[in-house]
Every structure is written in C-alpha cells, then in structure tokens.
Amino acid sequence: MEKLIESFRKKMAMPLPSLERELEKKINWNARLIGVRGSRGTGKTTLFLQHIKKTFTDNLNKVLYVSLDNLYFSKNTLTELAETFCRKGGTHLFLDEVHKYPDWSQEIKNLYDDYPELHIAFTGSSLLEILNARSDLSRRALVYELHGLSFREYLFLTKQYAFPIYPLEEIIAHNEEISAEIVSKIKPFEFFDEYLESGYYPYFLEGKGDYQSRLNETINMILEIEFPLLRGVEIAYIPKLKKLLAVIGESAPFIPNISELAHMIGISRQTLLQYLKYLEDAKLINLLYKKARGLSVLEKPEKILLENTNLMELLSGNTANVGNKRETFVLNQLLHSHRVSFPDEGDFYVDSRYTFEVGGRNKKRKQIQEIPDSYIIADDIEYGTDRRIPIWLLGFMY
C-alpha cells in the first residue's frame, strides 16, 4: 500500500490543467458512492485529481487515489486495500478504471455496506453498466457522464478565453446578442476548425503532433480491450467493427440500409444492430431515431453519425463530407444535455419542441418555415440573426 500512496503523492505534486470542468461543480461530492463514466481520453482521471487537490490539500492522509489496473491488485484485493486504508483513518477513496478489476461492483457494494464512514468515487468506461453489473449499484451510486471538451472549454484551455455557459434556450432566444458579445472579443472561425480537427479530447495538452496517433490508440483500446471485456465481443469481429466505423465516417451523412450494411461488413442484421448499440455506448457513434421511437434495442436507426468530428478527421481526413461534419458537431453538442430525434422535416428534433436544419451560410428556411420553433444552424456566419444561429455558438452550451 505504501507504493500506492507514494504514487498518489507524486500525482498530487504534478501540475494539472487550469480548466475546471463543469461536471466537477455538478457532482454531489458529499455522496458516499459516486461513479463517473466516460470515453477514454475525456479527462476522468484529471477530474478526480483536480477535486482532490482542491479539497484535500491540507489533509492528504484522509484520501487515496488508485488506478485498479495497478499491478498491486494482481496480488491484493480492493477490499484489503480499503480495510487497511480505513484503519489508518482514511475516509475518501478514489478508484480509477474499475472495469479492469474483476467483480468490481460486488466489492464496492460490500465496502459501501460495511464501511459507512468511507466515501468511494470511481471512474469507468462509457461501456460500464451500473444497473446490469453482477451487483446492482444503481440504488447506491450517483453516476455521472463526462463528455469531451466543448468549443468553449477548448478556447479556455488553448487561448485562455473565459466565456460563460449559454444554455440552448438562451441561445435560441438571444443568439444575436450573445454572438455579437463573443465576436467582440474573439474571431470564432480563427479557432473553430482546429477544434473540430483536434480539440474534443484533451490530448493536445501533451502536444498536438501525436494527437491522431493517441486518438487511434484510444479507438483500438476500446474495440480490442473494452468490447471483449465489457460486452463479450469476439476478437474475430473487431476488424469488422473497424470497417464499420470507416464506412460511417466517410458517408455524407450515413443513412443506413441495415441489410446491405450487414452484408458489406459480413455479419447478420441482428448482430449489426447490436454492435451499433455497443459503438454508441462506447461514444464512438451517435444513433438518431424517429420521434416516435419504440423501446427495442434492435430498432433500426434513421441516421448514423460519428460521435465527434475529431473521429471524422482520424477516419476520413480530407475526404470527410462538410455536411456530415456540421451535423456531427451539432448532434454531439446537443446530446450533452438534450434529447434529440430524427424529424419528418429538418435535421434534428430537440426536446420534443425545436426543429433544426443544419447547413452553410446560404441555407434557407424554406423546408422548415411552416414548422413552429424551427431554426437554421448555419456555418460560416459570425453573427446570429433571428432564426439563423451560428453553428459555432452551440459549442458554448457546456
């Protein structure tokens, strides 16, 4: 345990990013059991370390951060660690990468029940299932989701521009004033393209030169390690999933013919639908369904997009369709806090109220002008005007 403590203290001595993610403020850190899920590379570890440094700087003996993929756990159990930690007066245990520890949910449940003085916070893959784990933690744990960086957060980390969050309803009602206020301080399109290419994951903090190789490694680890471990996908199917991602990334945007796609990839229709859901759970793609969606997991999606534009840049590069890139960004930002479905007219139907059509600066409202609460999300414009909202402005919603 001493080596774990030494490793933790070294992490506390290292500098951390100055940006405090919005999720840090939303988490109820007083709860006894907290879970934070998220795709690889979104900053879950940094979130924990920032909170520890801010909260326990003068009392580090009360807290311990460990990653459960540490070799310590090849010979020792989590329960043994927690017992020793509590005997020494520890009160807050932060556990990283819980999905890499066998029977993690059962042991955490036991610790929660047996040590009422112990506060436990854990991180895990987006594929982590709290409800369907061997020991149901859903009634005990408060579970949060950490997304990649918004355009607003990217501007703060890279350019030190600090802007407030503007909720969607505020953007819709006051986009003219908000866009004018922001444009008076920066030129959004000076930075927007670089965000779309390499700004969603905080990898750029360690140098932009190897950003795409890091992202490629992230995809491979999700598919080759997390899928077999957390979804039971056979290794032989991983190349087919990679091919599927490439097909989606190159399309403009991808409106699937499930039977044809299954034949192209070489799997059954039912297996394809199941794997699409896995890819969505892993935050590699987003699936868009009709407004009146049923409850079946194996329902056919109306449109498939990559989860974020950085994935498009990796998988498609210069061949990525500009319309696909616009829609991918808009859907990615909306899904952070809103329900989005596929409308009869337009591109996105949001919160059962707003209809959005996405396009370039010359996009007209003709297709949606008779629809109440309908708006154009327009690229290549700096200022909002009535029902035309600048696309970059959606990057300020979190």
Describe this structure in words.
The structure is a single chain. The protein has 398 residues and is of the alpha/beta class. Helix content is 40%, strand content 14%. The protein has 14 helices and 12 strands. The strands form 3 sheets. A 5-stranded parallel sheet has the order 2-3-4-1-5. A 5-stranded mixed sheet has the order 8-9-10-11-12. Strands 6-7 form a two-stranded antiparallel sheet. It is globular. The mean pLDDT is 92.
Order of SSEs: HHEHEHEHEEHHHHHHHEEHHEEEEE
- Beta-strand share of residues: 5-15%
Helix content: 25-40%
By secondary-structure content and strand pairing, the structural class works out as alpha/beta
Shape: globular
- Which strand order does the major sheet show? 2-3-4-1-5
Estimated radius of gyration: 22 Å
Mean pLDDT: 92
Total strand segments? 12
Give the N-to-C terminal Cα separation. Answer: 38 Å
| Low-pLDDT regions | none
Strand count, sense and closure of the main sheet?
Answer: 5 strands, parallel
